[in-house]
Amino acid sequence: MGDRILLVEDDEPLGSQILGHLRGAGFDAVWWREGRLLVAGELPDVSLVVLDLMLPGTYGLDMLKALRAFSEVPVLILSARNDTLDKVRALKLGADDYMTKPFWPEELIERVRARLRRPTLQKEPSVVEVGPLRIDLQGHAVQVRGRPVELTRVEFGLLAALARRPQEAVTRQWLVDHVLDPEREGTERTLDVHVSRLRRKLGPAKCVETVWGVGYRLVPGEDA
Amino acid sequence: MKLRLRLALTAVAVTVPTAFALVQVEHSVRRRTTDEVIAGSTLAQMQSGGRERCESAPDTWMVRTRSPRPPWEREGGGPGPDGVGGPPPGAPSPGGPPPGTGSEMGSETGARGPGNDGPPQRGARDQGPFGRRMPPVQLFPFDGQFVSRNAQAPALDDDLREGVRASGVGVRRYSKEDGALVQDLLLRMPWEGGPCEYVLARRVEPADSPEVGLPPLSIWGVPTLILLSAMVVALGPVVQRLRRLTEEVRASSGSHYRQPVTVRGHDEIAELARAFQEAREEIQAQMAHQEAREQTLRDFLANTTHDVMTPLTVLQGHLAAMQQRLRTGDALEPDLMNSAMGEAHYMASLVHNLGAAARLEAGAPQVQHAPVDLNALVSRVLGRHQPIARPRRIALESGVPATPTWVMGDETLLEQAVSNVVLNGIRHGREDGHVAVVLETTRQQTFHLRVIDDGPGIPEEERSRLLERRFRGNAARTRAPQGQGLGLHIVNNVVELHGWTLTLAPSEYGGLEVGFTGPLMTPTD
């Protein structure tokens, strides 16, 4: 069973729907049908709280405020009101994220996952492993399936830039500005040339993916 | 109260006290002058023989003399410089006429005959056409103890005694029952002792004398009347114009302030008319503004209803079709499902857009400025549309800087703007197409956010039309052929509100590229 999540939602159909989707996504979900002004010790052991702002009895923000007095558990706010003031207020009171109704279950699950993932982001690692690739950022060394690969300075810089943000697209312009030698004339065309050379050296793993309209991204690749 | 009546009453209220005060002042001056004249002539008379006659017969001595004319009447024209003829007939004056002309009735003349009394002195000569003679003056002697041997002498009071002790002249005035004014002057003679040490000069002003009451009505009444009439007449046109203005104002307000009032001349009334004219224009402008707003709201509501009802109808149709297939045991078509999801998604976006439009319509106060991380915003927008894009086989991609991109803005509106552009790209995208959001920052502390697609794009003329500021009735219809309507208008308005730049251009992949450019948040923000 995955992380435990507390759902505070007064609407019966919406609540049971969200509960179903959370459980379907592998979370252990607890559902409260009304808000409570919590005091320390009353909060079940959960990794995240999904809190609807419009609750009978207690206003969601009051509950958040009371909760924040003793807990740092991440809180994802649900609201039917798409209002900036509400968002700003909620974030000020310590909410971590905000979702406006209506939303797709997929969107909610994605946001919950992103929120739970967040604290694992640590300081920059010295070695990144993506699929068959092992990139030693400090040692300037790259291995594909344990076999060292010789890269030029620009090629390594390119790979390192992608490796620092694995699975995220890095724009071509950024790569041109930060990786290519500023002394020489760096264009996106030059960048593409370097990328194709890099790909050839990395072999059939296809770890450097072209992101349409954006740039490049490091992925585990279709492992053959 | 009517203007004219008020003016007339005011004029009377001002004129009467003023006239009365002036008359009083005149009386007062005249009395003082009279006092001096009487004192002077009495002294002269006593010094030129009067003393001797008085002291020789203090029991009976009294003088009845025609008083000298006051200075303001001298030019009036009697025969002599004093304006006095001889002594009255039948009044022998053994002592010779004193300088201050008069008849003296001493003991030596025997008695005061009736003929010697007042009436002869008030004869025709004295009341000539040119002047008014002062009434006669009677003299009574008093000794050092203010006692008169003459039985006819009037009683003295403290005022007189005090006055004569203090300044040599005691003055007393009082009105008799018949309205006549009595003027007593107690004079100290320039000698000591004797029964005639003090002389009381008494003058009685009859009640009908002009010096007692107001001047005759004919003198002040006529000018006052003329003045009043002149004022009332002069006020006529003013009142007329005011009445006309009143009627025009009433007519104007009755016509929803459409009818103007005439402004003529440059005086205060014209000023009033002009002020009303300005107020009328202001009211009209307000009403027009209100009207326009209401019309916008009505149009908005009508369009909204239509725009929400249409996808809702489509959604219901899809749901009904699904139910039908479930009942008959047929397999659900993915297209049907995707379309149903797309309609629901579109409706959600539409309702958010309507909210945004309402806030934009209300103006700047409704906009909240706070720090916004564009990286997170892009991630949320993509997360929202991913469930719709995936079944349509449209790839949603994004590239953002490694660190948060902070800008100042209204998060809701900005997210809605970016979301609209992305959703447009998805809705109009081809199967296996792409929509990418690229966020970059420059060294000049600006950001550049581009939404690129490889869809059908928008022709040049259509692009410039989309950037026009105002919603235009049906042109803003959200499901118009190109379907860009409300969504892109909101984008345009939001960008304008934030002082950013919006560009629409063909993308290098054949579709549309929408660019947002603006300043990054500075540490001082």
Automatic annotation (TrEMBL), chain A:
Q: Which SUPFAM superfamilies match?
A: C-terminal effector domain of the bipartite response regulators, CheY-like
Give residue ranges for domain OmpR/PhoB-type: 125-220
Q: Which residues form the Response regulatory domain?
A: 4-116
GO-annotated cellular components = cytosol; protein-DNA complex
Please give the Gene Ontology molecular function terms for this protein. phosphorelay response regulator activity; transcription cis-regulatory region binding
Q: Which UniProt keywords apply?
A: DNA-binding, Phosphoprotein, Transcription, Transcription regulation
DNA-binding positions are 125-220
- Superkingdom, natural source: Bacteria
Question: By what name is this protein known?
Answer: Sensory transduction protein RegX3
- Residues recorded with modification 4-aspartylphosphate: D52
> Entry's PROSITE patterns?
OMPR_PHOB, RESPONSE_REGULATORY
Task: Give yes or no: UniProt keyword rRNA processing.
Answer: no
Name the GO terms of the biological process aspect.
regulation of DNA-templated transcription
Identify the stretch annotated as signal peptide in this record. none
SMART domains membership: REC (SM00448), Trans_reg_C (SM00862)
What the entry lists under Pfam families is as follows:
Response_reg, Trans_reg_C
Keyword DNA-binding listed? The answer is yes
Automatic annotation (TrEMBL), chain B:
Q: What sequence ranges are listed for the domain HAMP?
A: 236-288
- Which parts of the chain span the membrane according to its record? none
Against InterPro entries, the record matches this protein to: HAMP_dom, HATPase_C_sf, HATPase_dom, His_kinase_dom, HisK_dim/P_dom, HisK_dim/P_sf, Sig_transdc_His_kin-like_C, TCS_sensor_his_kinase
> In what ranges is there compositional bias, type Pro residues?
86-100
Recorded GO CC terms: plasma membrane
Per UniProt, the enzyme's principal EC class comes to transferase
**Keyword Endoplasmic reticulum applies:** no
**Record has Signal as a keyword:** yes
Q: Where in the cell is it found?
A: Membrane
- GO molecular function terms here? phosphorelay sensor kinase activity
Q: Which UniProt keywords apply?
A: Kinase, Membrane, Phosphoprotein, Signal, Transferase, Transmembrane, Transmembrane helix, Two-component regulatory system
**Source species, please?**
Corallococcus sicarius
Q: Which domain of life is it from?
A: Bacteria
Among PROSITE patterns, the record links this protein to: HAMP, HIS_KIN
Quote the catalytic activity from the record.
ATP + protein L-histidine = ADP + protein N-phospho-L-histidine
Q: Which residues form the signal peptide?
A: 1-21
List the PANTHER family. SENSOR HISTIDINE KINASE TRCS, SENSOR HISTIDINE KINASE YKOH
Q: What is this protein called?
A: histidine kinase
Annotated ranges, domain Histidine kinase: 303-522
Q: Where is this region: Disordered?
A: 44-136
EC number(s) per entry? 2.7.13.3
